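In response to the reviewer comment on reproducibility (Comment 2.3), we provide here a single inverse folding case reported in full, input and output, so that an independent group could reproduce the run without further information from us. The structure tokens appear first.
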């Protein structure tokens, strides 16, 4: 079974150690101590989820998030912000940039573990659903179906295709569906074609 990976982007070593103690027994972990390093690690390792501090020297967490979300390689990675700021405006800004959640400081190990596990489960379900949708689309693309008005000869029962050619009904249906045919003779045709058989009974 593949172990999920977590990238921790946090400039305070104390917080890094708390997060590592909570996650390392369960996940593969990467560490970045600033925003630029976080971008490099994210692009290099493509973690399953990122814990991202907002306030860091140089490049802050918002800019890191913005750049990750604008890069096709990393845009789908869930980001959880780490913040000591409780102002709803900061939370709103992060969510607008594409973050999935917030963990407030001081960091509690159980909360970190539960939040990370929850979002990884959601992401796994989303990916599974995405795969099933693609498989369904491929299956639907392979299915030929009969639909619309079919011009059929009132006498011989041949069907006219969209190119104007007349086809025997079984040929037309086989080309436009998954149906297969076996042949027999109905009682009415037996009476017309083989009257002697009926007389012998």
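Designed residues, in position order:
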């Amino acid at each position: 079974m593949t172990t999920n990976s977590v990238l921790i982007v946090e400039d305070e070593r104390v917080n890094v150690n708390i997060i590592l103690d909570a996650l390392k027994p369960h996940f593969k972990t990467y560490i970045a101590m600033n925003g630029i390093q976080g971008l490099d690690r994210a692009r290099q390792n493509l973690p399953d989820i990122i814990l991202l501090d907002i306030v860091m020297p140089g490049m802050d967490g918002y800019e890191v998030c913005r750049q990750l979300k604008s890069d096709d390689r990393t845009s789908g990675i869930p980001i959880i912000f780490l913040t000591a700021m409780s102002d709803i405006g900061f939370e709103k800004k992060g969510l607008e940039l594409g973050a999935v959640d917030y963990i407030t400081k001081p960091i509690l190990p159980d909360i970190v573990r539960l939040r990370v596990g929850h979002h990884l489960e959601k992401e796994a379900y989303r990916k599974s659903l995405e795969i099933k949708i693609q498989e369904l689309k491929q299956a639907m693309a392979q299915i030929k179906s009969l639909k619309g008005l079919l011009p059929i000869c009132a006498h011989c029962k041949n069907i006219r295709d969209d190119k104007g050619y007349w086809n025997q009904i079984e040929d037309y249906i086989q080309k436009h569906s998954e149906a297969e045919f076996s042949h027999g003779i109905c009682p009415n045709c037996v009476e017309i074609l083989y009257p002697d058989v009926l007389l012998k009974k």
